[in-house]
Amino acid sequence: NVHCCYVSIVDGRCYWYDWADYQSDMIFDGIQSNTPMGLLLDLEEGMLSIYQNGQRLATLKNRLSGEYCWFAAIRGRTSKIAIKRGLAPEEQQG
Q1: Rounded CA separation 49/5 (Å)
Q2: pTM of the shown model
């Protein structure tokens, strides 16, 4: 069971928690600092993916099920956060 996923752009890892313990099973490269990024939670496929510049960088977690909610946290930087409902960049019509 996965209860929480945490993405760290500092060390390029995705951590997941099950309230008893945490794991880091995904390391991803290619994050550009000071460039907007997106997280997509696909409820039909049960996948959490990370995007930047319209490109999927990685699937962070799959086989997710149940109810989920979003949270965002910034540490040590002044930034903006927006949580939006929408489609993956490749599914949007241009």
Answers
A1: 11
A2: 0.73
